[in-house]
Amino acid sequence: MKKIDKKTRLNQACENFVMNLTFYRSWSQLGDDLKNISTKESQKTIFWKSAKNSFLDSALFYWRGIFIDTSSKHYFTNYIDEHEFKNRFYEKNHLSNHSQAFEYYLQQIKKLQVNDYTQLENLEDSTFKLLDTALNTILLLHDLVFPETNYMLVDYLNNQLTLANQEYKEFNLKH
């Protein structure tokens, strides 16, 4: 089997995070529609609710591997100096370099556990903002590690969103 280099692994982890977060967000729209289905019909939607929540589980798994799990092959300091990344994070978010904002975001996103899928049905806006921050940290890391190809990750994000929205529309047309 061909050995995959470290940067390729990181790129794949970033792409997997983006894809799963994008699918989760698209299917979250479907989740709102699923809440209005009668109890008899709701048995048919268990798969879709579980799939939607699995997308978030998977996205958080990849994000934690990149920013939380120091033993992970994908851990961000294996690819870039931690201080350089934090400085860029603070600069991009208009924060003081002495701010603890990065550590705060790490801890808040780390707390997002998807043990009880019913809690996901009522996620607050603040949680979606945390997911935006998670996405922005991935895009920033990708920009710093792959400066020549970052546009590709943004294109990948847009393509995945288009694909997810098409799937959502097709599902709505069938039901």
Description of the structure:
The protein is an all-alpha fold and 175 residues long. Helix content is 73%, strand content 0%. The chain has eight helices and no strands.
Quickly count the helices. 8
Task: State the major sheet.
Answer: none
Shape: globular
Overall structural class, as computed from helix and strand content, comes to: mainly alpha
Tell me, rounded to a whole number, the average pLDDT. Answer: 78
Integer-rounded radius of gyration: 18 Å
Q: What string, H for helix and E for strand, traces the elements in order?
A: HHHHHHHH
DSSP strand count: 0
Strand fraction: under 5%
Query: Distance N terminus to C terminus?
Result: 44 Å
**Proportion of residues in helical segments:** over 70%
Contiguous uncertain segments of 5+ residues:
none
